[in-house]
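User: I'm putting together notes for a lab meeting next week and I want to include a structural view of one of the chains we've been expressing. I don't have a solved structure, so I'd like a prediction I can at least talk through. The sequence is below, exactly as it appears in our construct file.
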Amino acid sequence: MQHTRFNHPRFGRRTALQAGAVGLLGLGSNHLSALRAADSAPVQVKARAAVYVFLSGGLAQHDSFDLKPDAPENIRGEFAPIQTETPGLQICEHLPMLAARSSKWSLVRSLTHPSNDHSLGHHIMLTGRSIAPPTFNASKPMPEDWPSIAAIAGDQMPSRNNLPPAVVLPERLIHRTGRVIPGQFAGMMGARRDPWFINAAPFNSKAYGAYPSFEFDHQNGAHKTGIDFQAPHLALPDGLNLSRLDRRVSLLHSIDDQQRMLDRNASTNQFDRYREGAVQLLTDAKIKAAFDVVNADPKILDRYGRNSFGWSILMTKRLIEAGVSLVQVNLGNNESWDTHGNAFPNLKNFLFPPSDQALSAFLDDMSDSGMLDSTLIVMAGEFGRTPRVFGLPQHYKLPGRDHWGGVQSVFFAGGGVQGGRVIGSSDKNGAYPAADPQKPENMAATIYEALGIPREAQWRDDVGRPNHIYYGDPIRGLT
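Assistant: Thanks for the context. Below is the predicted structure for the 479-residue chain, given as structure tokens.
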């Protein structure tokens, strides 16, 4: 008698995760959306970490880390330089706390790329690739986009303490029109390998800056929308206590046993690992506390700041301590740093104070804990700003600067970076690199090297084609 051989159905990992982790465990929170597995095994590396502070909108180099006090007034702007802790190194007068800690950080004043467009600039600086993919669409992310630095780190780094290797917080980057900014996702690697997004605030098209205490409007200054910063809700769903959770986990184990009997070749390791991560997020007090930054010790909040910038940086610190390998922290929703007009009062009153405070507290705590040496911190925007200060009286009362990919200053600290150094320089007008030009590819390579990702490592797209990770050399002279 001839027997017909049946092939047992195979479900995609994403389907399994949704049906298993969400359905059986009862996990319905969007904050668990990244509990999905990667196809390739992570690289086994030391416990290193990186933080990418992203200033959406574009930080003006002339008004922050590369002042030109001897340039004409319409180039140098309104801010004066101050001396930092490092002899000969000057930065903006409105960053006094960072100036007092220059022994902990260094600058690259010569990073350049070819785009002055917000969307493409984001894609370039979030992926570390200066050339747009063939199907790039400024209006929306595309499946063929290059994967973000965060997505590649998440694909390559091992999970520690059942946490996702790469996290983006406190929100996705969305334009005030509702257009989702390209470059922040996994692109060609497939959506299941997107970094884990922690959405700590709902989208608000009228909210800018470090809400609530430093929230502003580009045209009218101080502004209140009532937007709230909320830690991810990691409580068990109504009616599901720990006893019932244990029973559901036991049920999952029983189902796993049946599945292994049906198909001993089915690979469930990745699913098991992320399901365990879901349980740990719900039951581990230390990990839950990492998210509850709004209710942190008042003394800690006094140092970091009771605003979205301070809370985001504090959450970043706690996630790194808990075992996350890379955190991209977006300081400023809705392209907050896009200072076309009223630039100087908005930087002085709303953007610099919370950034200066939160970053300085972060540097101090990471240094005091001994973690700064193993954690690289990078801060950049999608581009710099034009040398020329100009006015748009139809929109703003006071002048500002336009988009400028020609050069920007990038901040580096930790991860072996020696403090008080300046790599490269811009020309006398702060328009283009004058010495040691660097590209986004070099910045990305510096992050990958700090994480311990080897030069020969690769990521694979959805059909298994290998792709390089490194497209440039790490920036030399920082360490």
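A couple of points you could mention at the meeting. The CA atoms of residues 209 and 351 lie 6 Å apart. The mean pLDDT is 85.

User: Perfect, that's what I needed.
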